[in-house]
């Protein structure tokens, strides 16, 4: 017998002896405190299903939307983008596929979904205290109406026949929204960060999310930094290999408030000289944030790795956003790689007109997130490996006259 357990009360027929073999389905909600009672009193065995994986979701939406005209690679790329943004949320995915503009403008449908989610989540955070958020992250809250916006639920690997649930922050967008809400309140943000860092996160990608959150918090709560210029070493005729120098120089940014923005919006919407801007969209592999002021503009890329790809396709919109706020500084813009203290980094950057408009630096951060799990082991733990991969931009998206796209997706100048 199969039934849907939507109530926290025991089904009445279970209180008497019977020969039925019951299989009950229930939402993976941390408020389901009766589950422990059922285990003890009724000796039930609980089984926890992980969400469908990337291949399953691609098959689901390919079958459900045969008129989407997406090729298999494009469907996989788009589903991967949705997972990166919302985690696995089939209802929200369906609403995006059903958007009136999906066929003609898939990006607009996606942006609409992101805007709706961000609006909902900001409203939720306004109604919650720091303690509420901490309880949800730890899986001990009874706030059913908010839980699924903030957390995702997975199977905890253990021995025996019965499974346990573990709850994780849904995505990097959720982490950024938490930072946006509380980075200006140092004590509350410290509580949130300590909870995230001590939580039972098993997804390898989350290690990167936490490092980015540490970076955002560090930038917003400080007004003055020591950054390290990177030295140039030529490789071939068109690319530069950068490694960090030894001597620091000061960078003063003044008081800032973190704000999420639509990366497809007009540059005139991101001109607040007191803002620190972080894109809502997650498919931005070049930079994680930027800020600007009078005659000064800087972009930040948080990376725990010793190397990092440099997709120049994203430099042009970045330049436009910076120029809208600060014009064209005589000394150029700053591009800052925020890295763990003691880490060395090398970046291969194409030599183009737009890359020459930036000066490149590193900003060391004493990170707590590096002490978390081994990324290789956590991928095997929850079977989510491969779902959170890089989403490739469309070819020629930012190419202008006089330029071409090379095999690596970089824009190079056609020299004459």
Automatic annotation (TrEMBL):
It comes from Marasmius oreades (fairy-ring Marasmius). It comes from the Eukaryota. This is Uncharacterized protein.
